[in-house]
Amino acid sequence: MAEFPDVGKHCALSSCQKLDFTPHLCPHCEKHFCGDHRLSHGCLDAAATAPNGEPPTSNSAAPLRPHLCAKNGCFNRESVKIVCSHCSQNFCLSHRHAEDHECKYHESINDVENRQKEAVKKEIMAKLAPKQEKIAAPATKKTKVLSVAEQKKMDRIEAMRLKSNVNPTLGIPKELRMVIFAKVFEPEERRVPILIHMRWTVGRCLDKIASDLKIINDNGVTDAKKLRLYKDDGAEPLTMSDNILDHFGVSDLSTVILKRDL
């Protein structure tokens, strides 16, 4: 090469020093290198300029910072190992934290807190379980079956109580007050004392029963299913225009059944 002493540059890598007619100037260390060492010459920042995102390789010299970052897409190197305590891989200073390299073995603060709360909750529930088992279920109150005489006695007491607590706005004179017991099935089966006027019609008594017990009464609506009153032992409904005394005596405690047409 004595014919062209001023052409080209020798590779600045001490282990190479090859004369290259098209030398490459490193923009980081501002030295010239041959084509083989233009990227892999131990420069602090040369790895970042590798083409196609591939880390540089070198067959002739080791980089000054040998520890390559394990983060995908990062080619930074460090002179000392920086190992993640969770995944045991080496990373550069920029990606040394678990959050920075998206470590899949690292739990976030929220995950840790949620796991701790769940553990505390399970511990508390385990301690409370034996106590809850010791708490006896409330005893079911049994309904006493009354005899005929006992039932009549209870009915008289209910009738007296109802007559003595009459709302004056009803306008029923004391001597014309009468108590009948209505057996209904809406919304559930029950037998309830109802105060009526002795001179009311069956229809008026039906309206009073439905009103007191808050049962929907559509008897005035065309094609609606009608409510009917029946005697306790009767198969046919009572005629609406009849006086209630046509079917029951003046004494209290009679039972009527309120049913809706099917």
From TrEMBL:
Gene Ontology molecular-function annotations: zinc ion binding
Record InterPro entries: AN1-like_Znf, UBL_ZFAND1-like, Znf_AN1
Keywords: Metal-binding, Zinc, Zinc-finger
Recorded coiled-coil stretches: none
SMART domains (UniProt xref): ZnF_AN1 (SM00154)
Positions of the AN1-type domain: 63-111
A GO cellular-component term linked to this record: cytoplasm
Superkingdom assignment: Eukaryota
PANTHER family: ARSENITE INDUCUBLE RNA ASSOCIATED PROTEIN AIP-1-RELATED (PTHR14677), ZINC FINGER AN1-TYPE CONTAINING 2A-RELATED (PTHR14677:SF20)
Protein name from the UniProt record: AN1-type domain-containing protein
Source species: Steinernema glaseri
